[in-house]
Amino acid sequence: MNKPVDISAKQHAARAALSYVEEGMTLGLGSGSTAELFIELLGQEVAGGLKVRGVPTSLQSERVAIDAGVPLVEVEQVDHIHLTVDGADEVGPDFALIKGGGGCLLREKIIANASDLMVCIVDDSKLVEVLGAYPLPVEVDRFGFTITAKKIFDVLSAVSGSIPQIVQRLKNDGSQPFITDGGNYIVDCACSSFSRIKETAARLSAVPGVVEHGLFVDLARIVVVGTDNGADILEM
Ligand code: 5RP
Predict the structure, then answer these.
(1) 2 CA to centre of ligand 1 in angstroms
(2) What is the reported pTM?
(3) Whose CA is nearest to atom 1 of ligand 1?
(4) Which of 1, 24, 162, 229 is spaced 20 to 30 A from 196 at the CA atom?
(5) 7-128+218-235: what fold?
(6) Residue-wise pLDDT tens digits, 31-51
(7) Residue 226, ligand 1, Cβ within 6 A
């Protein structure tokens, strides 16, 4: 998986993303450690007088936002999201992403897709030439889970030409299945590489029982890459 990275690279990315935030915006608040750093920094801006409201993409982000003092709005009350700032597990060519390391991919994708702009914030270890070293998370309905996992195996075998390793995600102590905020299971699909990203995404989405997958295609328009020394802005 990703190499260990000094927290400062993530902080640099999170801080640089603040420059996209404007007064009065409704903001999608991503999930994961980098997004949480952004939420905490946003909270400092709110304390300084900035008026925004946030739509969290996970229960964990909601908790972080409440602690940081970021005003929140119920997703069902929102008809327009100006900007979403979220992390990623891998950033590949054309800003295709693998997301879902934290298990929040469904809500993250719903919010990113509803936003005028998605800014992805990562440390430089996340940039890859080919997606797939990070196992692809796929969220699946609990009903018929074994059948669905077999169908995912078939799809990934066909598109990658290799034999994927598909494992059900467990809670950290390994005792029970991991359950998403939406009540579903996650399977992590190690495939070593994905070259036909759009085809893979479409074929996974077509499997009954697949609730969502962690390939984010044509969603991020800006990627902010944090390094130990600062942040680089990459634009489509
Ligand atoms: C959660 C995600 C995260 O954005 C992704 O896992 C990156 O996390 P981190 O910023 O902690 O490296 O997709 O579902």
Answers:
(1) 11
(2) 0.94
(3) 102
(4) 1
(5) Rossmann fold (3.40.50)
(6) 999 999 999 999 999 999 999
(7) no
